[in-house]
Amino acid sequence: MKYYLLGRSGLRVSEISLGTMTFGEEWGWGASKEESRKQFELYIERGGNFIDTANRYTEGTSERLVGEFVGAKREEFVIATKYTLYTRKGDPNSAGNHRKNLVQSLDASLKRLKTDYIDLYWLHAWDYLTPVDEVMRALDDQVRAGKVLYIGISDTPAWIVSQANMLAMLRGWTPFVALQIEYSLIERTVERELLPMARELELTVTPWAPIGGGLLSGKYNKKNFDPKVPKRISPEGKRLSEKNLAIAEEVEKVANEIDRKPSQVALNWVRQREQQMIPIIGARTATQLAENLDCVDFELTPDQITRLNQVSAIELGFPHDFLQQPSIQDLVYAGTQGQILRR
């Protein structure tokens, strides 16, 4: 694998992150300890060093297994974990973005992972309750204490991320260096605000569900689709639309033309976007993981990317589409838009 610098930092992370939400069987669909270990060993054999987990994954088992598998080689890995989601249902302070939950969640994660620091600590999801300045100061305190090296943010509106990083920079606190969001050929709405924001703030994007929760893996298409079977694709079934199945069909066509797997095509569409993307790849078996990791062995052609772009295109909406109108461009740039060189 190749390695990228993570956001505006000098931290080197592999071009694919190993997702470990499947490590553990507590949720009824994960991998056993033995199968999880096979995945971990395969990933590091391929050159991977970027492990993604969270305190809620499989009720804490994911973190415990990662800590065990890493063992004495802790310094060789970039371990990323998260806080926000509840650890004791019914206790309002066992969830959220506030300082109390951050501190107690971090300390519990450190114990499960058997380490004294986290390389990348993610805020898992925005709670719309905690003040932004409390979040950023509380995270900065953990960095200054040496328990956390870098911070990232996941599943949060763009305006909040922008506010948080500007506040951190103005006050000399630690800013976010990475953004984790759902992104794939069937989920492109983040192109409206989140991706442009990440590009301007130089945040590395780590997409989750890059093959659409399995919908783009080739298992499901209009011919063999059984709506009673693939419940794991989405808890609400929102991904099971005519448009998404048409996208999956085009992915399969491209894969057949180049003798590759549909999942590899879907992953490379994400990996070959104009801005830096490090997809998080999770699997239930080492065989599935090996197949997905093989995406690094080839690239899609510009024509193939264009076909996939067209079948999955979305409307950006206002103000994006409005500002791209020739008449508006003429007004904004006084008719000189073709003469101005962009950075």
CATH superfamily of the largest domain: NADP-dependent oxidoreductase domain
CATH architecture of the largest domain: Alpha-Beta Barrel
Radius of gyration: 21 Å
Residue runs with pLDDT of under 50 for 5 or more positions = none
Largest sheet: 8 strands, parallel
> Which descriptor suits the 3D outline?
globular
| Mean pLDDT value | 94
Structural class: alpha/beta
Total beta-strand segments: 10
CATH uppermost class of the largest domain: Alpha Beta
State the distance separating the first and last CA atoms.
Answer: 30 Å
In percent, how helical is the residue content? Answer: 25-40%
TL;DR of this structure?
By secondary structure, the chain is of the alpha/beta class. The protein is built from twelve helices and ten strands. The protein folds into two domains: 310 residues, NADP-dependent oxidoreductase domain (TIM Barrel), CATH 3.20.20.100; 28 residues, no CATH class.
What do you see in this structure?
The chain has twelve helices and ten strands. The chain is α/β, with parallel strands linked by helices and 343 residues long. Strands 9-8-7-6-5-4-3-10 form an eight-stranded parallel β-sheet. A hairpin with a 6-residue loop joins strand 1 and strand 2. Helix 4 crosses helix 5. The longest helix is centred in the C-terminal third of the chain and has 17 residues.
